[in-house]
Amino acid sequence: MVNLFRLSVTVALVSLLVGLVLPFDRPMQISVDLNKAPPPWLLLSAAFLAVALLSAVASGALLFFRLWGRWLGAIALVGGVFVAWLASGSVLTASMSSLAISLFGLSASAFAVGIGLSWHPIVAPRFRHER
Questions:
Q1: What share of the chain is helix, strand, coil (3-state, %, to 5)?
Q2: Alpha-carbon distance 52 to 97, whole Å?
Q3: Which of 1, 47, 52, 114 is deepest in the core (most CB within 10 A)?
Q4: Cα–Cα distance between 91 and 12 in angstroms, integer?
Q5: pLDDT per position as a tens digit, 75-101
């Protein structure tokens, strides 16, 4: 069970990082007027990068069995679901490749399995002692 937990967290982290470096399918024309409020897709991309960074830190903490990693991972998972809901009709998702969208879905699914397995009775005792 511990190996399954580690495998799911590793798959989540690797698929997230590979999805982040994939190029867009279609080029985007970007025009930002600095005298106005930033466009929503710009704020959405910043939120996406913040959630990705939070997920990467939580994955590292989970792999080292840190107790705070479970809660940080749960917060990152909820944040990722919220950002994905906001991004569903944006310009960014229209330009992303289908492979990147699939990798983000795989990452979220594997991360949710990893968070769930961290509370499993076989895996949970490893989180009790800080090292």
A1: 70, 0, 30
A2: 18
A3: 114
A4: 25
A5: 999 999 999 888 887 777 888 889 999
Transcribe 46-69 into DSSP letters. HHHHHHHHHHHHHHHHHHTT-HHH
Q: Which two tokens stand for residue 53?
A: 């960074």
Is the pTM of the predicted complex or chain greater than 0.90? no
* Residue 84: closest CA among 67, 69, 104: 104
Output DSSP code: residue 124: G
Least Cα distance to 70 among 119, 19, 110 occurs for 119
Question: pLDDT tens across 43-58, in order?
Answer: 888 898 999 899 999 9
